[in-house]
Design goal:
By secondary structure, the protein is an alpha+beta fold. The protein is globular. The chain starts with a strand and ends in a 5-residue tail after the last strand.
Length: about 240
């Protein structure tokens, strides 16, 4: 288990003084980067071998969002590798051990030159030290798109959306989707399925669907041809009671 300590910053909270979902996701993403860097499989290494880990899916469950200046501990551990696919858990706790949030993620190793799945050049299971799966209810990777979605105003990808791979960062898709839910929507579970990679100046065509109770939002962030770049499902806490 790889862990690091944090403290909730003012820049990471919303109007209620608690960490935003986007910031929570950033902590998890940073944990995977820190872990990889510390075992010698960081950004520079993969640039040299012309490979990249692409995120295929998130499932993040939230018990409570931490408050401003609260001390937190973030942890991550890979638990399985299958060919070019890797599986990794995350969690966020208080220093006292209260579980604030936990997650599952699925990643694909890609060859940048060929644009195809890559064969690992290192023994990833030995280097990362695989651990047991986190005890949680695992959702399917694929997200169903409801038929009642409504199209919203398209918008272009800008520089601030991009990461070091010159693609839209994983967390940015969630930020885009968050624009379409009510302000008082308290997320208990976030699921994201990544389908295609958007780059600078690509147009995003959002389609937003809401269930009858208004507690489950599905935001499909599409290409012009209607195929999704990413599908984001946001579930209100009362939906799971």
């Amino acid at each position: 288990m790889y862990t690091f300590d944090g403290r909730v910053r003012y820049s990471e909270v919303g109007v209620d003084g608690s960490m935003t979902i986007e910031s929570l996701l950033d902590y998890f993403q940073d944990a995977s980067i820190f872990h990889s860097e510390d075992v010698g499989l960081g950004v520079d290494y993969f640039q040299r071998v012309h490979q990249v880990w692409l995120l295929s899916a998130w499932q993040i469950c939230v018990n409570r969002r931490p408050h401003l200046c609260e001390n937190i501990v973030i942890g991550t551990s890979p638990y399985e590798f299958k060919g070019f696919v890797g599986f990794r858990n995350f969690w966020m706790k208080t220093r006292e051990g209260e579980v604030l949030a936990y997650a599952n993620s699925i990643w694909s190793l890609m060859d940048l030159e060929r644009g195809m799945p890559a064969k690992a050049e290192k023994d990833f299971p030995a280097i990362y030290h695989l651990e047991e799966k986190y005890p949680m209810e695992y959702a399917p990777r694929k997200i169903s798109i409801p038929s009642n979605g409504k199209e919203r105003e398209p918008f272009p990808v800008k520089n601030h959306h991009l990461d070091t791979n010159n693609h839209v960062n994983n967390g940015q898709y969630v930020r885009m989707a968050m624009d379409y839910i009510p302000e008082d929507f308290e997320i208990s579970q976030l699921r994201v399925e990544y389908k295609n990679q958007a780059v600078l100046e690509d147009m995003i065509y959002p389609v937003v669907a809401v269930n009858e109770e208004g507690r489950l939002y599905t935001v499909s962030l599409n290409r012009e041809d209607g195929k999704p770049y990413s599908i984001v499902e946001l579930e209100n806490r009362t939906e799971r009671q």
